[in-house]
Amino acid sequence: MGPGISAFFPAYNDGATIASMVINAVRVLESLTDDYEVIVVDDGSRDSTPEVLAELCRLYPDRLRVETHARNSGYGGALRSGLASATKDWIFYTDGDAQYDARELALLVRRAGPDVDVVNGYKIARADPLYRKVIGALYNVFVKAAFGIHIRDVDCDFRLMRRSCFESLELKSTSGTICVEMIKKLQDAGCRFDEVPVHHFHRSVGRSQFFRPYWLLKTFLDLLSLWRELMWRRPVVSQVSSAAPRPDKASSLH
Fold first, then answer.
1. What span, in angstroms and rounded, lies between the C-alpha atoms of 129 and 202?
2. Which of 38, 62, 169, 178 suits 78 as a labelling partner, its CA being 20 to 30 A distant?
3. Per-residue model confidence (pLDDT) at position 221
């Protein structure tokens, strides 16, 4: 069957949704490859997430691993832990809050191959209140223009990436700006992108931290600091591939 896939979920107070994400991931991975692992990064959850994960580990003792942060380290910290924990050739991640369907991983796998390094999802339609749609659209336009990013949806955390791309790539962000940092650095390293439309669902449990005034201000300041580092100072980035990103390329993983 297909090559190895590590699927991981950053989770913070996702006790109501993380079980469905893990179960769906296991089911779809079983249909795609016999070499896979599922990882959940529990980023200091204070709800039932640890108990749910303990039960899931009993159900999938050979497939599920849990990385636990004693304290909340932020979205960027959770993503960095997940990337560092992955051991397979390809890394898939999405959030543990069930706003994406883990079963649509199969759509990404179909588009990965020897001439593609990153398969990035983009939301068919954002299932959020109007003010979040407006803020999200403005954020996407702003970061694409400011950082010279070419993919459609920087804010879509539904990605399949070749693990070798991260061997010489260091991520530093601790907040949600890690997505901008990651895509920018992958793009600058010559990684080849493809894009796939995916569904986005209403957040039925909990509340997003991003849209609160404090976090919006913090995100702006973090983006400013990141822009100074990546755009103003213009660091030298080693090339993963000599080919330029080609969003229209597609081939089979198998």
1. 9
2. 62
3. 87
235 by Cβ neighbours in 10 Å (0-12 / 13-18 / 19+) ranks as exposed
pTM higher than 0.85: yes
Residue 171 lies in a domain: yes
CATH number of the domain to which 18 belongs = 3.90.550.10
Mean pLDDT (the chain) is 88
C-alpha distances in Å from residue 45, one per residue of 24, 41, 63, 78, 127? 21, 10, 22, 12, 25
Total of domains in the chain: 1
The whole domain housing 183 covers 5-232
Q: 178 lies in a domain?
A: yes
Residue 239, in any domain of the structure: no
Which two structure tokens, joined as six digits, stand for 186?
């992958």
What are the tens digits of pLDDT across the range 39-89? Answer: 999 999 999 999 999 999 999 999 999 999 999 999 999 999 999 999 999
